[in-house]
Structures are given as structure tokens and as C-alpha cells.
Amino acid sequence: MTTRWLSLFSRWIIGLVFLAASLPKLVAPQDMALAIFRYHLLPHGLVNAAAILLPWIELTAAVALLLAPAYRRAAALLLCGLLAAFTAAIALDLHRGIDIACGCFSLKPELGRIGALSLLRNALLLLLAALAALAPAGKKPCPP
What we know:
The protein is an all-alpha fold. It has 5 helices and no strands. The protein has one domain (2-134). It has helices at 2-27, 29-38, 44-67, 72-96, 116-134. Helix 1 (2-27) crosses helix 5 and helix 2 (29-38) packs across helix 3 (44-67). It is globular and about 40 Å long.
């Protein structure tokens, strides 16, 4: 019973976090592109594509995690992958001494600077996403 509640808690926290994180990015893709550019990790030609696609991936995975039992494990695994990539990007830029805004929940450059707390937050979110991914699978999707 405890495992079930922990799984439910993890799923809802991760789903709501990514739902909330995706919305400002969807409304302002140009600001998202600038936030991605400031990390200096992607070739310039991929920045705009990433700025358009990433928020939709976050939103879709969050909704699937919250509302689509058949796709919960896949959504949780996708969010684990995103969190791992985002955490690596933050760690790399911290190591390189690049002082930028995270771009996680706000796209304003003066808010949410990356730092050790960003890494700790992402580690906790990654743990919750992993717990959600390890939960028993939901109903199988209907065959075509």
C-alpha cells in the first residue's frame, strides 16, 4: 500500500512540475530559444527547433503521466531522460563558470540562476520520476 501511495505522489508531483514548467515556454518560444542559447551546448541551428519541441515534449509527457495510465511508464522514463539531460547541462555550465538563468520555470534571465540548488532540485525530481517509472504499469492501450 505504501508503494502505491509513493508512486501516486511521485507521479503527481512530477506531472504537475513539468506541466507548470512547460506553459511559459509554450507561450514564449523566442524566450525559450534565448534560454537554450545561453547554455552554449547546442549548435545554433538546433536552438530554435529545441525551443519549439522541448516544451511540447514536456507537456505531452506530463499529461500522459497524469492522465493516461497506459503511457505512464513511458512518460516517466521520458521525463527521467529529460531531467538527466537538463541536470548534465546545468552541471556542465556550472563547471565552465557560465552564470545563467536556469530557464526551468521562468524564462526571465534575472530569475532562477543555476547553482548547486538547481542540481539538488533536479536530483530530487529525477528520483521522483524514477519512482513513477518503476510503478506498476497501467492499462494497456487498445490495439489498432
